[in-house]
Amino acid sequence: GQKGESATFDSLQRQVTALEKNIQTLQADISRHQKFFSFRWVKSVGKKTFMSTGTKDSFENGKSLCTKAGGGLACPHNHAENTALREILKDSEQAYLGMSDVQTEGKFLYLNGRPVTYTNWETGEPNNDENEDCVAMYDNEKWNDIDCSNSEMLIICEF
Ligand code: IPD
Ligand code: CA
């Protein structure tokens, strides 16, 4: 009868209100967590997001870590991306960039094989010191060519 229907309606309305409150709480939680992670490990610039797990490894291992996660090794294509990437580095940390000149010495290519269009070399770099085919960013935002087997480089991925 009508009484039963109205009781059901009241009950549903209470449930919806309770769910709305839960969603609000979850949204506030997510927002707090997003702020925390972007403060330390996640930097978004344009459509790109740089992220690190804090792992230090060689170029090949870094590349595979990022690829397996569905992204690629971090590779800044302009000044804004370069700065965002640097913000993940702690003092005196260095990070591999997604490029190399392993194919032709002195010709740096992105990992998709296209020639590098934006660079931010440190003065005197790249110097191919004892055959350096990979590139790392210093904590001053500048780049240095470096040995690809160096496993002290922070691995930062882009998504
Ligand atoms: C080297 C220097 C050099 C740079 C090389 C590094 P190391 O470090 O910083 O300026 O061009 O890539 O390997 O071997 O003197 O500790
Ligand atoms: Ca060098």
Can you walk me through this structure?
By secondary structure, this protein is an alpha+beta fold. The chain folds into two domains: 1-40; 42-158, Mannose-Binding Protein A, Chain A (Roll). Helices cover 36% and strands 24% of the residues. The chain is built from three helices and eight strands; from the N terminus they run αββαβαβββββ. It has helices spanning 2-40, 59-68, 79-86; strands spanning 42-45, 48-57, 72-73, 95-100, 109-110, 134-137, 143-146, 153-158. The strands form two sheets. Strands 1-2-8-3 form a four-stranded antiparallel sheet, sandwiched between helices. β4 (95-100) and β5 form a beta hairpin. The N and C termini lie far apart (57 Å). The mean pLDDT is 96. Residues 125-127, 129, 132, 144-146 line the site of calcium ion.
In CATH, the homologous superfamily of the largest domain goes by the name Mannose-Binding Protein A, subunit A
Task: Write down the secondary-structure element order.
Answer: HEEHEHEEEEE
Could you tell me the number of beta strands? 8
Q: Please state the structural category.
A: alpha+beta
Catalogue the unreliable spans: none
User: Within the largest sheet, what's the order of strands?
Assistant: 1-2-8-3
The radius of gyration over CA amounts to: 23 Å
Number of helices: 3
Shape-level CATH architecture of the largest domain: Roll
CATH topology of the largest domain: Mannose-Binding Protein A, Chain A
Enumerate the distinct ligands: D-MYO-inositol-1-phosphate, calcium ion
Principal-axes geometry comes out as elongated
First-to-last CA distance: 57 Å
Query: Residue share in helices?
Result: 25-40%
Specify the CATH class of the largest domain.
Answer: Alpha Beta
Q: Into which percentage range does the β-strand content fall?
A: 15-25%
How many domains? Answer: 2
The mean pLDDT is 96
